Amino acid sequence: MAQKNIGKSVKINRTKCLSIHSTLNYQFARGQFIQNYQKNYESYSKISLQYYGDNTKYFDSDVQLGNGTFGNVYVGKTNKNETIAIKRLNEFYKWEQHYQEIFILKHINNVPHIAHLYDVIREQKYPNTTSFIFEFINGTTLHKSARNLTSDYEVRYLSYILLKTLNQTHELNVIHNDLKGCNIQINLEQLSLKVLDWGISYIYHPYQIKSNIGGTVNYKSPEQLLNSNFVSHFTPAIDVFAAGLLIANLMYRGTDLFYSHFDYEVFSKQIQFFGYKKMTKLSALLNVNINSTIYSNFTLNRTGFYHNSYLKRRQFITTDGINLLQQMLQINPADRISISEALQHKYFDSIRNVQESLFHDN
């Protein structure tokens, strides 16, 4: 696999791993320690499917919105003519495999700017398939919307809504773990934003060791790329890094800072951006050896924020905006500002009061 060239993992035990991450100050890193964590996975067993029976014949789902690993998403209509989104799982996936997703969606269902889960059912037409019934979101992906932005205010406003939403879910101990452009839906006419697809999100615990599952390579943090082959301890800082890249995408009107389809290419771009010495310092803390033969000759290149190829798209780049990105895109997760701290950044000073009053109305 492509990521094998990044580094070689060192066999470690749980105690040593926790010691390493204590060195990184993960447990108390910038407000990311969650004191009120309670592991409620036993609640999964209390969730039961609801059978709508004949009512499902009113679900008109001919229009496909998208597809993914677990199934396809369609536009549907209820018997009350309400528009909904139907995520129909592939037949070989059982609903019991989605306990965690269902639990988390119910856990965060009061957060305003997410795609809310209405129900989990079996449709009459598809008795062997589980369907998730979601709120229908009328919008386009962040990438497409970013190309049509017309003002600096729109960038700041949408960035603030994104951070406000993540701050609320982080307060509920939930890490999204797959933030990317196509999981953010924006309606520019209403200037609204929704965060979608919580399929690989999880409840955070400061001492939990977790396998590095999922995530989209363009938005992976350095610690995720370094730990691509084994389990480790990931914090809400991975969402901070991905959110920083999404905000950069808005500022650059649809351009990804670390675009690639392969882990090793993104890792190469991050080394050029952060510098080889900083990456090796982080790898030492994580107890991972970087392949020096491949990466040691990479030169530091931080022109990503200012490169000439972005000149035509740079009308939304400001000094305060760059400062925000620099604080969110720190290589060491313990050095990144938290989502709540990002919300207080001076980049949002001029419009914070307006955004706060409108946040619950969109």
From TrEMBL:
Domain Protein kinase: 59-348
GO biological process: regulation of cell cycle
Catalytic activity: L-seryl-[protein] + ATP = O-phospho-L-seryl-[protein] + ADP + H(+); L-threonyl-[protein] + ATP = O-phospho-L-threonyl-[protein] + ADP + H(+)
Protein species of origin: Ichthyophthirius multifiliis (White spot disease agent)
GO CC aspect terms: cytosol; nucleus; protein kinase CK2 complex
Entry-linked Pfam families: Pkinase (PF00069)
Positions in coiled-coil regions: none
Broad class of enzyme this protein falls into: transferase
Protein known as: non-specific serine/threonine protein kinase
SMART domains cross-referenced by the UniProt entry: S_TKc
